Amino acid sequence: MHEFGHTLGLQHGGGDGVNDKPNYLGVMNYTFQPCSVTVAPSVLPGGCDYSRINLPKLEEVLPPGLDECVGLGAVLKLGGVDWDNAGGITGATCGPPTDNVSANVNGDFTDTNGNDQRDPGEPSVLGTLTGYDDWSNLFYDFRSIEDYQTAGTPVAHEPDPGSIKHAQQQFADQVRPELTVTATAPAEVAPGASFDFVGKVTNTGRGPSLTTTMENSIGILPATGSVSRAVTVDVPCATADGTVLTRKFTAKGKDMLGTEVSGSASAGTTVRAPSSPSAKRPRRRSTPVSRSPTGSRTRTRAAVPPTTS
Ligand SMILES: [Ca+2]
Ligand SMILES: [Ca+2]
Ligand SMILES: [Ca+2]
Ligand SMILES: [Zn+2]
Q1: Which ligand is in closest contact with the Cα of 207?
Q2: How far, in Å, from the CA of 29 to the mean position of ligand 4?
Q3: Same domain, yes or no, for 109 and 190?
Q4: Which ligand is nearest to the CA of 13?
Q5: At what angle do helices 277-290 and 294-308 cross, to 10 degrees?
Q6: How far, in Å, CA of 244 to CA of 234, rounded?
Q7: Are 157 and 211 part of one and the same domain?
Q8: Does one domain contain both 139 and 184?
C-alpha cells in the first residue's frame, strides 16, 4: 500500500519528503508503514490507511515552538504530548499558559558522513512539520507523473525492516503512555460494614493511552489524566477478626502503535470484630436497619446471635 501510494503521487511526508512526522498518520510515514496507523475513535479507522486528516503543524523551533497541550490537535481527542521529554506538558494553551518548547519530534538529523546513521556531532534538523490529507490529494493520472516508469529499478531508499523498526521505536518512545495505579482502602473495617476499594490510574507517560480499561472501559486516557474506580464490598458479619481483604486494580491500555501497556496496584484492609460486650449492643440494634444490601442483611442476622448468647 505504501508503494502504491508513491504511484499515486504521495511522498513520505504526504506532500513533502519529510519522514517520521508524528502529525502525519498514514502508511507513507515509515512509522506506520506496516499498516499500523493509529486508531482514534470516530475519526481514524487506523490500520492500513493513507492519512485522512491534515493535522496541525508541529513547529520544532522557538518561536513559536511546540504547544504541548495541543499535542496532535483537538480533533483526535488524544490530549497533550510531552514532546521535549522534560517530564511535563507545557504550552501557550495550557491552563495556566506556560512556555512552548522546542524539540526534534521526527528525530531527523544531518547525516554529515552519509552513513545513514546518527553519529556524535551530527545535528538535529529542526523545522516545521506539516500534516497532510492524502485521500484528498491522490493523483490518479499517475502515468503523467514526471518520474513515472513502467519498468526498471525500484525507487531508492524504500523502507527496509531496520528503518521501519527505528521509526517505530522513536515514535513509541515519544508518545509512550505509562499507567501508574494506586489503590486505597480503609485500614480497618468492621464485620457487617460496607467499604470501598478505590483504584486510581494516572497516565504518567508522554502521550495518550488508547482503549484504556480498569474495572471497566475508560477509553482514551491522555497524558497527565487520571480516572478513579471504586469497588464497594459488603463484609459478611461472620467474617473472622483479623481477616485481611485485598483487591488488585489492573489498568491496561495501548500506545498509538497498538502496543499494550499496563499497571497495577493492590490495597488491603483488616477486619476487626468488636471484642468487648459493650460494643455488641449498638451493632445489634443498628446494623440490620442501616444495611441496605439485602445479602449482607441476611448474613448479619444469622451471624450475630451466636456471638451474643
Ligand atoms: Ca514537555
Ligand atoms: Ca552519520
Ligand atoms: Ca526535525
Ligand atoms: Zn516509500
Answers
A1: 1
A2: 8
A3: no
A4: 4
A5: 160
A6: 14
A7: no
A8: no
CA–CA gap between residue 18 and residue 11 (Å, rounded): 8
- Least Cα distance to 197 among 209, 187, 211 occurs for 187
Q: Which of 175, 197, 216 is the last residue of a domain?
A: 175
The CA distance from 79 to 73, in Å, is 8
Query: Are 250 and 230 within one domain?
Result: yes
Cβ neighbours for 297, distance < 8 A, ≥ 6 positions apart: 288, 291
pLDDT tens digits in sequence order for the chain, 309 residues long = 999 999 999 999 999 999 999 999 999 999 999 999 999 988 999 999 999 999 999 999 999 999 999 999 999 999 999 999 999 999 999 999 999 999 999 999 999 999 988 999 999 999 999 999 999 999 888 777 776 666 566 556 588 899 999 999 999 999 999 999 999 999 999 999 999 999 999 999 999 999 999 999 999 999 999 999 999 999 999 999 999 999 999 999 999 999 999 999 999 999 998 875 554 444 444 444 444 443 333 333 333 333 333
Q: Give distance in angstroms: CA of 155 to centre of ligand 3.
A: 24
Cell triple for 130: 506539516
* Same-domain status, 165 and 46: yes
CA of 132 to the centre of ligand 4 (A): 16
Range of the domain at 95: 1-175
Q: Which of these three, 150, 175, 200, is where a domain ends?
A: 175
Cα(294) to centroid(ligand 4), Å: 65
